[in-house]
Amino acid sequence: MPSSQRISKITRKTAETDIELELSVDGMGKSSIDTGVPFFDHMLTLFAKHGRFDLAVTVKGDIEIDYHHTVEDTGIVLGKAFVEALGEKKGIYRYGSGHYPMDETLVRVALDVSGRPFSHYGGPESVPHIGDKFNFTLVEEFLRAFAFNALLNLHVEILYGRDPHHMAEAIFKGLSRSLDIATVVDERIADIIPSTKDVL
User: Fold this and answer.
1) Under DSSP, is residue 8 helix (H, G, I), strand (E, B) or coil?
2) Rounded CA separation 167/105 (Å)
3) CATH number for the 7-189 domain, one of 3.40.50.150, 3.40.390.10, 3.30.230.40, 3.40.190.80?
4) Which of 32, 74, 135, 190 is deepest in the core (most CB within 10 A)?
């Protein structure tokens, strides 16, 4: 376990969204999520559960227009929360990856908590909306916003799948599991930053 608590609390208010977020990296998967977007609430709830992160998020966004600002801005704030909580990133494994199934869907996620943001997404074109309103392209928007603000090198690919709900769920679960793997502290190097540059 890390020598000190890895927690953060961030608020961000713009003309489009008002967000309050609390994160504990070393949690038990507890969550309290209210973004005003039910499907997105579902995704963030399972993100917390499968990553073992304790996460509280409240968002007041302009969802009467559409869900874009709420989803993207939440990715921004969640990314910043991880940066704040991880601090110097001493002792972390740094890398996390895996293949994550969800029924007929298989997703590959690989990430490096490198301090150098990059986001690659590969998936099928023209995926149907989830339910009546949630445009599947918002998943990619969230990933990009999160990666660039969490300072991650993030690669996500849908290898195959048909159901848009299953594809989104596999992505969020895969992201959280890979991030949990990458942020666990290796006690052998608990006081060392895992980079030849001595900074991440």
Assistant:
1) strand
2) 6
3) 3.30.230.40
4) 74
Question: What is the pLDDT at residue 1?
Answer: 42
Predicted model pTM? 0.95
Q: Establish how many alpha carbons lie within 13 A of residue 43's alpha carbon, considering only the half-sphere containing its beta carbon.
A: 27
pLDDT above 60 (res 115): yes
Diameter over CA atoms, the chain: 51
Report the pLDDT value the prediction gives residue 197, as an integer from 0 to 100: 87
Per the listing, tokens 């890390």 go with 2
DSSP string, 85-125: HHTT-TTB--EEEEEEEETTEEEEEEEE--SS-EEEEE--S
* C-alpha to C-alpha distances, 105 to 68, 134, 142, 174, 187, nearest whole angstrom: 25, 19, 20, 12, 35
189, 144, 192, 179: which is closest to 27 by C-alpha?
179
